[in-house]
């Protein structure tokens, strides 16, 4: 499938690119705002595509900024589409449930949808997807969602403030990404976009409970898929600054005791591995799984890289000074034995391993990142 993508550097755009990587679809052709100012050149890149996803736009700003970012970008894309010798088969617009609600944001989103729908006379199928409130890993605080804002405040040691309580329908951004690209249902995504309906005050209390429990290294109760995904969203704001977490050692003449896991209201799966000197394990990422590493004997380096980014985060670890490092979702990770003796590592995951639905996607930590996008997610 040949996919073209605008808004690739935004919150939703990054998650779409990660999901494409996970399910093994080809890398999309990325159109930046600069590309849209050259409609003839952009048309050559768009023409004949199976799918064009228009995710570009702005969520906040003055009325003029909203008009330029939402209606302006759609109008520029229309000029590109009208120049295509062979139009894309399908154009999907990431619209909002607020479209047409009388606000500058809602009205510019509605106008953008109308412009793209009118241009469908060139021969593409148009899909206007009204997205609700999206939340997920690495959302931009005070911009993308109240979830991202609350998570950032809590990760920085503060307490979220609720100015006016109301009910929200929250959808995880990976579910929205699956709906937009037309992915079949998977273990870690659901294109039907099931929401969690929650009051803002209850959301703040839920995330505060996560933060309070997690500060001690304990895992809060993860009762359903939205609890897991909200917890992963909070964890994305804690990494890497909150790690590694030191473990308390209790030693006597018999030996040493180290507590590595305390899980509230749940179990999961614990397993151990040995690794010979110079060898590595991992080089993959997860979309939803919560995973913890603890080296009990030997020395190692844990390396992580956020999918689509270049920077590699490194944690030297040793069984002589035990710590835990939790793997954030959508970060490729590996552990390498850097010592001269066999490495013994304890692993924990919040769910039982299912070979049919492993939620494990190959991605070498050292592999070049996804093509550069215009704006970092």
TrEMBL record:
Gene3D superfamilies: Jelly Rolls, NAD(P)-binding Rossmann-like Domain
Domain Capsular polysaccharide assembling protein CapF C-terminal: 251-361
Pfam families according to UniProt: Epimerase (PF01370), Polysacc_synt_C (PF14667)
Ranges for domain NAD-dependent epimerase/dehydratase: 3-178
Region: Disordered, residue numbers: 358-377
InterPro entries in the record: CapF_C, Epimerase_deHydtase, NAD(P)-bd_dom_sf, RmlC-like_jellyroll, RmlC_Cupin_sf
Annotated signal peptide: none
Stretches assigned to coiled coil: none
Record protein name field: NAD-dependent epimerase/dehydratase family protein
Organism expressing this protein natively: Micromonospora sicca
